[in-house]
């Protein structure tokens, strides 16, 4: 394992759909689905879905900054979320699906704010960029059956992606 790894925590809808876009990028050591930002220690999926814990579904990305910069990760993040929707993402609705960049350091906070500002000024979106930038909170790994969902259940993952994310990416980013 590398001596100098860093981590990023991003929320942008169902964590099932947030793992795949980052999982195979160069320099990525791991992408873990989990929960963060709430007030209940070690929440379960059922608790988070009850909307009573304050948690957001998120992914923790461990990466080698010599191969993938945090700024580049932010660029990928903006391309796989709808930064104009504070009430969830695509077919996933509610606070536990809100778009948030959780920063681990002052440098990450500064990079996230700069990236958000650049996106806002780009004119790519007609609506305001509402993605929150918040300090990292304890990250709790989701249950094993949620990890690497896109590989374990490719048909169901494809159906989730068809729920809006894939079309959104195509419309706004041309991919």
UniProtKB/TrEMBL annotation:
The gene is msrA. Belongs to the MsrA Met sulfoxide reductase family. Coiled coil: none annotated. This is Peptide methionine sulfoxide reductase MsrA. Pfam families: PMSR. The active site is at residue 14. GO terms for molecular function: L-methionine:thioredoxin-disulfide S-oxidoreductase activity; peptide-methionine (S)-S-oxide reductase activity. It catalyses: L-methionyl-[protein] + [thioredoxin]-disulfide + H2O = L-methionyl-(S)-S-oxide-[protein] + [thioredoxin]-dithiol; [thioredoxin]-disulfide + L-methionine + H2O = L-methionine (S)-S-oxide + [thioredoxin]-dithiol. InterPro entries: Met_Sox_Rdtase_MsrA_dom (IPR002569), Met_Sox_Rdtase_MsrA_sf (IPR036509).
